[in-house]
Amino acid sequence: MKTALFEVPATLVTSSTTLFWFRRDLRLQDNAGLYHALRENQDVLPVFIFDTSILDKLDDRDDARVTFIHQSLELLKTQLEELGSSLLVLCGDPVRLYATLKPKAVYTNHDYEPYARERDVQISDILQRKDVAFKTFKDQVIFEKSEVVKDDGSPYTVFTPYSRKWKAALTPFHLKSYPTEKYFKHFLRTKRLPFPALDDLGFTPSPIDFPERVVKRAVVEKYDQQRDFPAVKGTTRLSVHLRFGTVSIRKLAQLGAQKNATWLNELIWRDFYQMILWHFPQVQSQSFKPAYDRIAWRNDPQEFEAWCEGRTGYPIVDAGMRELNATGFMHNRVRMIVASFLTKHLLIDWRWGEAYFAKKLLDYDLAANNGGWQWAAGSGCDAAPYFRVFNPRLQTEKFDKELVYVKKWVPEFESEKYPKPIVDQAFARERVLRVFKNALG
């Protein structure tokens, strides 16, 4: 990486400059932290930091998420320059970076992941010692932390009562947009600032096509009827935009409340898993139900590789994995099928599958990914019971009866080139029930 990416122009960030730090909120409209920064200050300079603590852990130099962020920042920068401002893009360790700066204040939005929480505490302490305010706001969820809890103040660990309480607590205020446009005049007037190329960051462009930043109302209206069929374009494909905040959760929740309760429920699941991660950060590496860490996983590396590459001999499983590898996307129904197959049919630790999804998914989000994998394995909060073992053949008959999805991704599945099933369905079910029962008593 080029040294220049660490440098901040000496005259740009002064004691009269307020920084707004973009993170999981790459948009100007309806942005909570940005609204407060602009309303309360003059000379607000937007900044984005490519965090090397995160980038250095990525194996693929053409990681599609880095390309997505880079493209989103290009759009942000163009929009800001049309307003007479610009975007300061840096690369490095945010803690070390803020140690070198003394702005008037730093504004940003909350991040609930354990690494981000620790990083923000360090930055807050550094800035506080300089008498610089560090202000953070709720933006990526409707309800956060302990805003929706049981009557005794403890967190919910079952989704249905949580969702009831969530809906009961919802008011028009929670869905109201933040009118950032009213205060755009408060952006710092500056010349166009340098913008790093991907190769400056040590990456190359990804060939993956990204879903449009378009809210398809017709899809939302029919979501409850079409969402389970992977061959149908029945989902909005907005998850990557939600993940990086290129669309507003408030806008989408408002649409869900108006048009489709099932779609709104999916957004409530996002809040639920963020709340779980906040209250139970140990789920990042441990089973939510500790007894599940006693399971004697087989963890066969060759079988895991076959699963990763879509060579299990189970067509819908293989279709899902090939779709993921090629596009960074997998249909939600298929995610459940492939996760159940890995943990139940192959008896491979859910953490292996979670890590592979974390590497490949465009919309990778620690809270949702962890929650989904622990749900499939039975180890999570409100999870599928351990004796629920998805039958890939029956799932195919129910949700891809004409084999449109399977044929798209596994064109050879009826030929001699297609591998035999990696494990027998009946044997796998009997084995997993025995192993789980022995571990769980």
How would you explain this protein's 3D organization?
This is Deoxyribodipyrimidine photo-lyase. It holds the Pfam family FAD_binding_7. The record marks 297, 350, 373 as: Electron transfer via tryptophanyl radical. Belongs to the DNA photolyase family. GO terms for molecular function: deoxyribodipyrimidine photo-lyase activity; DNA binding; FAD binding. The protein is α/β, with parallel strands linked by helices. It has 3 domains: 1-139, HUPs (Rossmann fold, 3-Layer(aba) Sandwich), CATH 3.40.50; 140-176 and 214-279, Alpha Horseshoe (Serine Threonine Protein Phosphatase 5, Tetratricopeptide repeat); 290-440, DNA Cyclobutane Dipyrimidine Photolyase, subunit A, domain 3 (Orthogonal Bundle), CATH 1.10.579. The protein is built from 20 helices and 5 strands. The chain has helices at 32-40, 52-55, 64-82, 94-99, 114-129, 159-169, 172-175, 217-221, 223-226, 239-244, 249-259, 261-279, 301-309, 315-327, 332-345, 350-360, 366-377, 392-399, 404-409, 425-440, and strands at residues 18-22, 44-51, 88-92, 105-109, 133-137. A 5-stranded parallel β-sheet has the order 3-2-1-4-5. Helix 1 (32-40) links the parallel strand 1 (18-22) and strand 2. Helix 11 (249-259) packs across helix 12 (261-279), helix 14 (315-327) packs across helix 15 (332-345) and helix 16 runs antiparallel to helix 17 (366-377). The longest helix is centred in the N-terminal third of the chain and has 19 residues, at 64-82. The protein is globular.
